[in-house]
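Supplementary Note 3. Input sequence used for the single-chain structure prediction.
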Amino acid sequence: MDYLISLASDPAVWAALAALIAMEVVLGIDNLIFISILTNKLPENQRSRARRIGISAALVLRLGLLGTVAVIVQLTTPVFTVFDQGFSWRDLILIAGGLFLVWKATKEIHHSVDPDPGPDMFNTRAASLGFAAAIGQILVLDLVFSVDSIITAVGMTEHIPVMVVAVIVTVGVMLFAADPLANFINGNPTVVMLALGFLLLIGTTLIAEGFGAHVSKGYIYAAMAFSALVEGLNMLARRARRRAAEAGSEPQR
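The predicted structure, written as discrete structure tokens, is reproduced below.
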């Protein structure tokens, strides 16, 4: 108890908590976009429940990983070397998660561009996504993003209670934003393609990180923010043209 009181009375701890929450919320956007796109393929009565389960699983995974933070730190230790490039368990997890994300985003882009492609390399015999399959895919990416999130948290503060609070707040924000974000994506077809492009970019970044090529998150999120701004302007322009067309089609009195 004295330890918690001393933490609560330390301004540096509060500053670290604010910075960590901001960082975790930004990192959580990736996870949330994937969950939104995936759950929008489910029947409407299952979507909200799938989002809650997926985000709750992310909370459980992250808190569980915090309980083994000593092991998580060791995940950055190289376990083998190929051509003088060391690979740790974290690297392998990031590469596997990045490949999965690139495959999933490419598959969804393929089906968006050609919604009735017939038999192909993506095995399109299943037209709809099952609830269990959606949850399984969400859990895979939850694990990847959770490992990256906790390692980032460990690098920003040494206090476990601060990490726990940051994780809980972040997941709370994700739960609050999940349905509005998913509904917005579902209601704007061009935003779906933009979000899939984001996932493709994020997956490529994870693979690059796994191979030791550090890519500044600032550049990635700046590019995503700029793309979102351009798409927002396009949406406003389409809305203005639609209003003008409707006004022009009204009968003259």
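Confidence is low (pLDDT under 50) at residues 120-127. The beta strands are 78-82, 85-88.
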